[in-house]
Structure formats: C-alpha cells, structure tokens
Amino acid sequence: MTLIPEVHDGIARAVAARASRRRWWHPSRRAGLLATGGLVVGGTALAATGGWHPTLGSPDRGLPPRVATVGVPQEQLVALSILRRPQTEHDRGPMVERGLRVLDRRGIDGVHTDGIRVLFQTPREFAMVVPAERSGPAGFRHRDVLCLMSTSFSRAKAIPIRRHGKRRTIRLPSGFAGWGMTCGEMERLRTTGIATGTTPDPDSALIVNGVPRRPTIRQVVLVPDGVARVTVRLRHRRTVTVPVHDNVYRYTIHGFPAQMGTLWFDADGRRIDHRRRR
Prior knowledge:
The protein has 278 residues and is mainly beta. The chain has five helices and 17 strands.
C-alpha cells in the first residue's frame, strides 16, 4: 500500500488511481507437498460443475485465461477441506464472476473453475480462492498455484480538511477499491500460508491536514487443514490470536502491516511447527 499525495482538488482521481496501483500477486518460488495426517482423497479432480462456464478476463485486458484441462491437483484437495466441499451457487455468484473478469493470461492461466470457492463475504469485503495450473509471466511462472482474490467496498465519506487556512470538505465516493490477488504454491501454503487483504476504509491511505491516517487493513490468510488457531506476532511485541474457519483466518490492523511471524495451533492447542514441514 502507498500513501496518496496530500489531499487537493483532484483527490477523487487520486483515489481511483490508487486502485490500479494495488498489490497484484506475489507467488512463492518454493514447491512442496503438504502431509495431512493420513487423509485420503480419491482421484485427482473434483467433480465437474455442470453447465457453469464463467467468463474469464475481458477484451480490454488482453488474452483471457484458459480453463484448466485437468482437475484440481490431489495435493491441494488433501490439504484444503474447503476444496473438498461441493461447489455451491454462492461460489458461482455475481461477485465471483466479477472478479474473474479482471484476470488476464499473463498473470494466471489454466483456471480450475470447478475449484473456485468463496472464502467469505460481508457487505464491504469479499475474498475467494481460485486454483490455477500456472501463474506469473514467462520466466517467472509457477505451477499448480492457489490464488486468493479479494476486494472491498467503501462507503461514501466526507472528510473535513484545512488548506491555506481555510476549511473545506472532501467527499470520497463509494465504490469498489479494485481487486488484489496473491498466488502461492503448496510450499507457501504449508509454511507461511497464502495471504491477501482488503482495505474497507475510503480514506485509509490519505494524508489529511498533514497527518497520515492509519489505514484499516484486514489480513486474510489461507492455511492447510489441521490449523485451528493462529497467533500473529506484530510490531512492538503485540500479538493477535484468531480462529481458523474454512481454511482461512482474518485479523484487523490499524496502520501498515509488519507481521513478525505466526504460531499455528491444532484443535487441541498443540503448536504446529509449520516452518519445518516437508
């Protein structure tokens, strides 16, 4: 996230430009396989999703991604219970289709449309997981990735400011902040988790009256089966402990993130040494 320059008459254009500068994806360069305590999943693919054929990409974004030619890899099915549950109408809903239209083949290809799952949705936030055969441009390509896509919706807001000794009000419109995406391979999932985030705060990155506002950031992290609770270590010796639901944990921070590591725990409270799993 970057700071938008000091508020001025063109603030609305700056806010719109901020969406296009959002973090896109940061795929892991590591590869690996998660062992999940003897769980067996038959076959290498999820069942087909019938007649659902969502539009991938759009004409203004270049070549659209292609649909995967094989099923979701078995190691991903073994690792994530959310992929093993049946796909629902919610997983094929309008927000999912909206997100899929921003994709392009340079960033992601071979999309497993049958593996798309909504992780959570609130009136102002949305996140989903999109398995794909590959991500990244040529030379930086990664295979069999799990991509987290997220967006947030900002309410319209009026911000009072003082400029040149005069008070005025800046009005920020409501709307989506754009889509972010983070892709990672299995090794990343089982060692650090795959993280993205949302910023449902319309003035979260502004400097108002010379004072930077502390952005509200929701961190969203995908983790493998077996993780029931996570403690996140932050700056200044602060920690936050949150439960895992549908392979995802979320936490809110006010200010720019500086995660100092995580501790994973199973349902019995035992610590999981996830950084050494192979």
